Amino acid sequence: MVSHWRNLDDAAARVVADGTDTALLVALMLWLVPTKRSPAALRQSCRDGSWTVAQALDQAHAALPPAAATAAAASQLLETWHRCGVRVAVVGDVAYPSRMAAGWPELPAPVFLAWRGVPPDEAPAIAMVGARRASAYGRGVAGWLAEALGAAGVRIVSGGALGIDAAAHEAAHQTPGSTTVVLGCGHAVRYPRAHAHPGGLFDQIIDHGGTIVSEFLPHEPPRANRVRERNRIIAALADAVVVIEGGARSGSLITAGAAGEWGRQLFAVPGDIRAPQSVAPHQLLRDGAAPCTAPDDLLEALDIREPHDQSSRVANPVSTLLPDQVWKLLADRWPYPMSLDELADTSGVSAAQLLAVVTRATAAGELADGVDGVRFRRAPGDVP
Q1: Which residues fall within 8 angstroms of residue 322, CB to CB, at 6 or more apart?
Q2: Distance, CA of 47 to CA of 36 (rounded, Å)
């Protein structure tokens, strides 16, 4: 029996974040495991009793001491986190993000936060959310904003989903600001598969100094309520939230509501008034959200006023890899993409030559290539 408790302490020591009390993490795990109690219930206990997490756990364990089998189960969960390369902090610890801990337990910060990659910090951050079934326009705008903000040192926070989330993460993860993914499942669950497979987007984010966080135990699957719950964390980890696209029932509206709860600035990107993906941002604009029409809108909200115009523009005519007529066509169409067939038909450049120059420009980072065609990764500058 003694070995169960020793193994638990050892397992906790392997995942505990710097500055986190190992004994507190052990007590939390012992409370969570037996009946899969909700961390929200612990937050409610802290509110009702005006207790710290440690005091609430002391009260719970005094009423129902944990058994050896509980210690063994908790050890297995901690070992799973360890195999995933996870670190864990409890609310109130120095490693736990202070912008999210502010106002706890009145505000719904998670009791613990588990992350892979660099620890969450207090760098300027923008949450960028929108539709999974995003339009080419929405993906283009998300990539443009995320890359320009990241170049200015701003961290991009999003939910790791397909569509707008993916466009933002992909554009930001190699910039100085990097990016944070907030999961709607545990770290041991590969979801969404398009991003969580070995060598996929999530691994690339970790390799480039990004962070992947979760409030869930390692094997918790991505049920709808969990995916919705994680939206409040996206808002809490940022200084402002920008909604790019979304339908009338979009989850981005949940994140927008959380922005108000956390006291974050809210922005929305205007879209095509006929498009169903524009319903959510246009509703927010009617309700008082600030319009976001360029990276400057968000940088000014963060009080970042360093010159950054060149970071949000495509290479100038001296350095572009594209023929002038191709450059002009893509600049006129931006942020919408053009198919290679359309470019070949309207530019006068042969299909073979066009494929060669587009391939080189994409590899160099000048162009982004998607199912709808190619577009500039950033807003075009003056037409050559």
Answers
A1: 330, 357, 358, 361, 366, 367
A2: 20
Nearest residue to 129 via CA among 164, 81, 83, 101: 164
Name the one residue in this structure whose structure tokens are 């966080």.
Answer: 213
What gap in Å lies between CA 173 and CA 139, rounded to an integer?
15
Given CA atoms 263, 231, 293, 309 in this order, what sign does their dihedral have?
Answer: positive
Contact 126, 243 (CB under 8 A): no
Distance CA 252, CA 128 (A): 9
Tens digit of pLDDT at every position of the chain (384 positions): 456 677 899 999 999 998 889 999 999 999 998 766 788 889 999 999 889 999 999 988 888 788 888 899 999 999 999 999 999 999 989 999 999 999 899 999 999 999 999 999 889 999 999 999 998 889 888 988 998 999 999 999 999 999 999 999 999 998 999 999 999 999 999 999 999 999 999 999 999 999 999 999 999 999 999 999 999 999 999 999 999 999 988 899 999 999 999 999 999 999 989 999 999 999 999 999 999 999 999 999 999 875 444 444 444 444 788 888 899 899 888 888 888 888 988 888 878 788 888 888 887 878 887 777 888 877 776 434
Residue 71: enclosing H or E segment and its boundaries?
helix 68-83
What Å distances lie between residue 53 and 126, 149, 231, 232, CA to CA? 29, 36, 23, 20
- Sheet containing 290-291: order of strands: 87-90, 112-117, 211-214, 179-182, 155-158, 125-129, 240-243, 265-268, 290-291
Q: CA–CA separation, 172 vs 178, rounded Å?
A: 5
Residue 307, C-beta contacts closer than 8 angstroms, at least 6 positions apart: none
pTM: 0.83
| DSSP assignments along 180-214, one per residue | EEE-SS-TTS--SHHHHSTTSHHHHHHHTT-EEEE
- Owner of token pair 């100094």: 209
CB distance 235 to 209 below 8 Å: no
Q: Let me know: does 169 contact 181? Beta carbons within 8 Å.
A: yes
Q: Which two tokens stand for residue 175?
A: 């910039």
